Amino acid sequence: MENNSTSGVFILVYDRQGRLFQLRPIAEKHLAQTRMWANDSVLQHCMCRSSYVSADDQGRWFQKLNEDSSCIVFAIEEAKSQRHVGNTGLYSLSWEHKRAEFWIVLAPEAQAHGLGSAVTKSMLHYAFRTCSLNRVEALVRVDNHISMRLFLRSGFIQEGLLREHHQVHGYPVDMVILSFLARQFRE
Fold this sequence. Notes:
By secondary structure, the chain is α+β, with helices and mostly antiparallel strands. The chain is 31% helix and 35% strand. It contains six helices and eight strands, in the order E-E-H-H-H-E-E-E-H-E-H-E-E-H. Strands 1-2-3-4-5-6-8-7 form an eight-stranded mixed beta sheet, with helices on both faces. The radius of gyration is 16 Å and the shape is globular.
């Protein structure tokens, strides 16, 4: 079973080393690795997560994903080996207001090779050309410098600071809001 809102969609991207990757609808086969990332302490910090994700939690998330048209999630795989190296997607998708929140998670070994930039560019193309959105937002933890650099280099504009927007381990965390508009994509 795969994410209904993306069935049949495959997006191909290359990292800086010329390796081919595919974005494909997230499927049950991707859940174990996704859960490992969700429970990794370093990635949890970046994602503003503080709770353990059980197999049952993961199953409920996947079921909800398949029923919710406001969420589109892709697994990122090496095309040759089909090794799962990350996830990306659009959350809080509003068809009425033509906007969504973009996110990306890459395994540590898949970082620093240009894959994040290639996936971000492809997802912006998907958001503006396929989904006909007008605005893509990103929320980034204020101390997540790697994600901030990725989004700014990709053309996102920093709009402001959302003070104490998330709670992590019972403590408030500030978030930076960035956006990318369809008219920027056309320029």
